[in-house]
Amino acid sequence: MVVALVMWAAAAAAAVWKCTQLARMPRDRGLQIVTACTVLVLVALTAQLVVTIPGLAERFPSQTPVLIEFVLLNSFFALLLGLLHTRVAPSRAGVRGYLEIGLALLSSGILTATFVITETSAGDTGYGDYTEAGVPSGVLFFHLVGNLYMSYATARGAYLAWNSAGHVQSHTARGLRVAAVGLAICCLGTHLPRVLATSGLLLLDRALIPGTATWTSPPLGIGVAIFFLGVGYPGARTGIAKARLWFEARSRYRQLRPLWSALHQQFPTIALLPTAGPARERLHVRQMRLRYYRRVIECRDGLVCLSPYMASPVDEADSPERQAALVRDALARCSQDIDLVMPSVIAAPANTGMEADTRAILALSREYGRTTSTAPENSPR
């Protein structure tokens, strides 16, 4: 049960992640297929768990979870292998895709027929441990066919995923190689040993590899978890990068507040959008980078408005501390009836570009906030 829950959790996380990505890019064909694959796995594992819940398990034939798992996973691998063929050999992807679908349908048909025939003739056959004595040959054949296809699908998927890594970006390539390792573990640690065991029981009346119904489950759980780790790696990497940019934008947004607040109090028209108070500002979560760049622009507009009130022109070599003192003095002069001087550039950027301009304004705001004992924080935001 623990292994099943681990596999289900990994599948659920991957399915939710891919569905959110698909909601943002609904026309991405590759993402549509990958999302369908992950949802199929989640449905298969969910169905398998549901029919093992006490109170529900008695309402289903004992082999129902295994049948559901095999049939849905066959569909999953047909989609997955078809997608991987489009990366490795695009010219033959159509033919190979139809072959993969046909092979999956053939395997599912044989499994379903075996399920029906075996249940009719043998009753409740107990598919849980096919290595027990007296298990009908139909049950053994069922497991042989299912694991034979899964051995092919995981081996083929591992090969294609590893080779597909050479045709994509570096971070996606890492994810594909991790997914390939997970599929290889499933193949070598679970499905291939089960094929050998069931073949021996059918042909020689003894398992060539004993105990495969028990000890092969942990490698399967590990392989599935690694596979979904690889599938989710590119998206997780992008999510981490976005989170880092969000925190950076939020930090800089708050660092700009001392300068912005003073300028906005004196020149309210610099606000591009309706403003709110500092308490509400702490609750801002969405569109953080947009808010940050908007504040940079508003600060620059405020400095342009303030420039004619400077007591002396600003030299590009002036330190942020010196410029902060000039800004504080100019703000005090705004309410006085004085002759305006020739405007000069306050917080001039060292280089061209938005980032250089932002760094200069940030340095001025930090120094202004540090040296101003009573910043006008009660101004509207």
UniProtKB/TrEMBL annotation:
Residue intervals of the DUF6545 domain: 246-368
Membrane-spanning ranges = 31-54, 66-85, 97-117, 178-197, 217-236
Where does this protein have coiled-coil stretches?
Answer: none
What keywords are assigned to this protein?
Membrane, Transmembrane, Transmembrane helix
Mind telling me which Pfam families this protein's record contains? DUF6545 (PF20182)
Name of the protein described by the UniProt record: DUF6545 domain-containing protein
Query: Which species?
Result: Amycolatopsis minnesotensis
